[in-house]
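The aim of this short unit is practical: by the end, you should be able to scan a pair of folded records and say something sensible about each. We start with the first protein, listed as its amino acid sequence and then its structure tokens.
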Amino acid sequence: MDQGLGALLEAFARAHASCPDALLVLIGGTAEQVERLREAAATLGITDDVMVLERMPQTMAARYTKGAHVLVSPRCHGSNTPLKIYEQLASGVPLVATNILSHTQVLDARVAFMVDPNPDSLARGLTRALTDEAARAEVVGNARRLYAEAYSRPVYEA
């Protein structure tokens, strides 16, 4: 599956045992991708705990981000930093991200829950991000400071 989503589904199935109230919301696929992800969730037995939605306007996706308890960027390869990473830093929502070049150009363990790009590590990162309030607060504060100091609009314009 694209962009580490298969590993994320497996990780969520594992993390869900420790966090049974968690709901995974995946946004942005084509109808075919959505169907494949729903089938994978069914195979893992997590259909009732995973919502897979097609692409939507950014303003609507931003509403889901604001309501999230944790954000995840599960990419397993790549060298270009996803633009959404900058918005996620500023969001006030903790981020779990894989420890690959496309993320480490901007992120580190001070500003995100960094994990290896495999289901076991992702599951541990998700569980920690969902349950460790002190770590969540620290990561969010550091992420907001990094965004303000390095990536905010005033910094960009300067």
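Turning to the second protein, read its sequence before its tokens, just as you did above.
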Amino acid sequence: MLGLTASYGTLSSEDTNLMVFLDDININGSLTSIKPFFGYFYRDNRCVGLRLGYQYLNGGLDNLSLDLGEQNDISMNVGDIHLLNNSFSTALFHRSYLALDQKGQFGLFAEIEGSVQYGEGKFINGSGEDEKYTRSENLKLALGFNPGIAVYIFPSVCATVSVGLGGLRYTAINQFDEAGVKTGSRHASKMQFRINVADINFGLVVHLWNKKKMASR
């Protein structure tokens, strides 16, 4: 089979009340990803495949005011900060389907995925007289679980919706200044299992050989 999953999400502070002591919040951002993949069914309802991916993150903090009150005598204002990040990924996955009806047109699937992601980001601070920025190189290794729903809209075309449930992650970040000199690094690993509303993907799958649909058990 051949397929494609894509996602797009936005973040805005217009309708959000974060804390009573945060005023004049203006945060915005978007996250876009596209992931084509190829899979081979080695038996009924069992598939292994390769997925490639591209992700683009664009976010900004135009203004943020912090006021803890006259008694604490602490207040500050930051703004004109932007974050850009481009990353590419490669992943191997295994997917298992389970039919919900006798005709095999509706079903669930469980997917386990091992991925490697590499990207470069730029953190831009334009609040001063001169615009300053730092650059980062990011490496992420992950083992994740992605369950979903599959619906055949045509005999050989299947629409899918999946959501990330987390898993194991390792991240390494190296930071550089404008001159290209390394200024720091950070390594982190974690294991987390929960529904991630920021990782909901809509997909379209084309089966190249229409021998069987999902076999009911």
